[in-house]
Fold this protein.
Amino acid sequence: MAITIRSLQEYKASGHKFSVLTAYDATFSGLISAAGIPAMLVGDSLGNVIQGQASTVPVSLQHMVYHTECVARGNQGSLILADVPFMGAATLQRSLDAATALMQAGAHVVKLEGGAWLAEAVIALKRNGIPTCVHLGLTPQSVNALGGYRVQGKDEAGARELLETARALDQAGAALMVLECVPRQLGAAVTAAVAAPVIGIGAGPECDGQVLVMHDMLGLNPRPARFVKDFMADAGGDIGAALRAFDTAVQDGQFPAAEHCF
Ligand code: KIV
């Protein structure tokens, strides 16, 4: 049966931890969904892992639409999230246009990076039947403003602000949240404070779900971040086995372990 937003909400309500992986093409979309991973993210990390860019800033809406179409063709029942790329949410009109294009390309949910100012877009998209996932914490599209890929919400003021932002966007109607690179305690606090399922990446095991960039968890990144685990290391070259091992480790609470947390 196809996974929907309601499935992820039910997982949160019942305490069932769920896995999410990035996907960019039909072949891996088929493998990931066949492995039983409930959701796939057509991430703008495709700028890094597919295009060889230094950041996600050069990724355009056209690129996102193309890869979302590819993933949708290979999908076998997973929920597809697609990233609104750099500057795509700079105005309400741009958010609506980007979301329209991504949904028509086959996404089920659109993901927007930013802060409390996303509330306007979240409300407008919800009114038009488009569920949103807001991406908080380390937001890679803002790498230049952040001064690098750094853990966010480390001090008390930063943590309080992030928690308030999460609450505000939850109230606005965000269907999902991605929380990237924050201290474990903050990941736990946000997850407990909001109704939306929270998908962590470097945000600790208390998050409702865990996402990794597929290339990272297949051991293809020579300089992986602290929060990455190479699931291919024990899979003997079997991609399907590595995908299933990730899913099982998330469900069992084995991943992320202490060494993957901040
Ligand atoms: O673009 C992406 O892959 C992402 C994940 C890192 C969450 O946003």
User: Anything to note?
Assistant: Strands lie at 18-22, 39-42, 79-83, 109-113, 132-137, 176-180, 198-201, 209-212.
